Amino acid sequence: MPAKKAAAKKAPAAKAAVKKAAVKKAETKTAVAKAPRVRKTPAPPPKGSKAEVDALLKLIVGSLEDDKAEAVVTIDMEGKSSVADYMVICNGRSSRQVAAISEHLVERLGAAKRPPLGVSGQRAGDWVVIDAGDIIVHVFRPEVRTFYNLEKMWGLALPEGMGESIEETAAD
């Protein structure tokens, strides 16, 4: 009988331990529920200093020139738009070149620890838009660039020979 008495004395202690564990578990769930949620998408980087933006612009224009992009135009957007500081517009000779120019630019931006916030149109290769944060880059096929004429929207003319090259291509 002494064994039964010992077991009976242990039972309240075991019940108390189980109850204590249940309370602790409930407190943990409450603490987890109150924890702030973590953003799944990265927040856009803060606007860079003028020197950082100029260095980024130099990297972008250099990449476009290395890949033989044609008619590169840089538009200063300061005072015109709060979306970006600069817009760079260029074109490649074909869909394949447009895709290659944009792919190389994305790689170079990543290597410079400034991966683009978004890339659109790369698969089709007619018009690729790369959001590099402070700079928006448009890479076109010549026909598409002439059709949309983004330069006109910002008060500039198409680079010399752009409209002519399209007409010559159509005539051939």
User: What is the general shape?
Assistant: elongated
- Figure out the total of helices: 6
Kindly report the spatial arrangement of strands forming the biggest sheet: 1-2-5-4-3
What is the CATH H-level superfamily of the largest domain?
Beta Polymerase, domain 2
- Rounded to an integer, what's the Rg over CA atoms? 30 Å
What's the β-strand tally? 5
Percent of residues in beta strands?
Answer: 15-25%
- The CATH topology annotation of the largest domain reads as Beta Polymerase, domain 2
Return residue spans where pLDDT drops below 50 for at least 5 consecutive residues: 165-172
Q: Which descriptors apply to this entry?
A:
single chain, 172 residues, alpha+beta, Beta Polymerase, domain 2, 2 domains, 5-stranded mixed sheet, 6 helices, 5 strands, elongated, disordered C terminus
